[in-house]
Task: structure prediction
Amino acid sequence: MNKVFHVMYDDDDTLKTAASQLVAKGIRVKEVFSPFPIHGIDPIIGVKRTRLGIAAFMYASTGTALALFGMWYFMISDWPMNIGGKPSFSLIENLPAFIPVTFEFSVLCGAHGMAITYLLRNGTLPGMPATNPDPRTTDNMFVMEITTEQNSLSAEALEAAIKETQLFELSIKDYK
Amino acid sequence: MQREAAIREPLILGNKSYKDITDDVVGPIQGPAPIGWKIMITISSIIAVYGVGCILYLIGTGIGVWGLNKTVGWAWDITNFVWWVGIGHAGTLISAVLLLFRQKWRMAINRSAEAMTIFAVIMAAIFPGIHMGRIWVSYWVLPLPNQFGSLWVNFNSPLLWDVFAISTYFSVSLVFWYIGLIPDFATIRDRMTKPFAKKVYGLLSFGWSGRAKHWTRFEEVSLVLAGIATPLVFSVHSIVSMDFATSIVPGWHTTIFPPYFVSGAVFSGFAMVQTLLLVLRKGMKLESYIHVKHVEYMNIVIIVTGSIVGVAYLTELFISWYSGVEYESYAFINRFSGPYSWAYWIMMTCNVISPQLFWFKKIRRSLTATFALSIVVNIGMWFERYVIIVTSIHRDYDPSSWGEFYPTSIDIGVFVGTLGIFLTLFLGFARFFPVLALNELKTILKSSGENYKKIQDKH
Result:
């Protein structure tokens, strides 16, 4: 029977120390639930750097291209108009007047694209159920999730190793 | 763990733990509404309803019910628009610019300042909307395929840039604010006992569970959004100023407008943040989190931006004389000695002289003085926009078309009404939303909390 351990700590630094100790013993920490970002936990438990920043850049670049194409089509190609003698026959000549909207539209696409990607990747969307193992993890408690499935050690050996850390509470459940 | 110099004043006062921060912020949401809140929201919603009535009357009758005339075609409406957009700027400045500069004191004030931004931008957007007269065709400002030939909107016009700037600014601020709110809503969700409230906060929190990977992404998103919101906030008010600066009206046609408007916006925005937060901290007993040091930091921003505004006023005066253009010179002589000189001198006193009082440490750290001066600045900044807009156009090149502007009761009603709507929204926020970014605050407790700093000092 696979087991899942929810090890609760009452301090972020204690959890970090405990995580380092367990990882040093070759134990894989599946997940950490915390009320706020614990700085420095990612390399310990092997969380990779997010690529959301790259995504944002790509969305913003799409915005830039769309804005420039749109303004070229509206103002130069489809229906050029003489407005106060402003150049209306070439994109490059009319470009200074197009910079503000290009910028705004790039920001619009970059920000919203990144926000939507962030929500989708997290699976945090309206109506999604909460999956934190204990309601106290959004308040003042920090929980580490370890499963026998991801570790070669037996449940007993894992429990012994976990109990060596300065934990606050431990709950062991059968893994479905 | 991050350490902070012992000489720095702590940002969180008292003997606080992580749990205390949650209790202090979520407690008021769980408890019954205080009587003071009920009184305030009643008054503000009555004013809001009156404002909505004035707006409906205006839409039903036409903008002739305002005091506008052929000479002064922009007056209170655009003044109010620029004033409200300006107020909004402090929220983004606090949450984005101060995030980039790693200013930790922002964490106590960013949430409510961002809420203020969003509500202020909504109020601002009302004015150009209703100024169109036929608001039901307001979608014509968007480049939509149409049957008019196809007649596209004019992308050479700053008024159209403004449409893009304001809508981008509003929606990006909203997203920035909401992404920060999700973890805090989760905290409220997990503490709520009543099923309905739990359900509502559960929906609002999008199922947030605080996983390590999610927090990494959260920080990345906050940083990148801050990075793009920073140039955005500067661009928005620059574009607002170009509504004026690209015209050929003496008094408007100046190149210093963008920086001058942006610093004016930050100046008035911080003043509004002070006004609201000084009441909020008292009403919600958040004195340990928003205290004298935070007020002092904001007052320093007010001195800096207020001084930039002061320099801009003097530069305008000097350049109008130095340019040798008589129309330009007259526009400024008319400002300080013409029929609207009273407004000019209110502006000068409120915006140039009053913030200089903050050079005195006693005044800068006094909550009463700050509250009073913040209102003075808000009044001054309203008059700044009034002076720029009305006095520049009421006497232009052709003396036969000179005229004056007198506000009607509808002008006043709509403006006061937006104050009411704004306050109603803000009070609603203060009652049902986490007013502090409580989970972010927990990250600085160990480096900037009073009790933790004392322990550090002993070592």
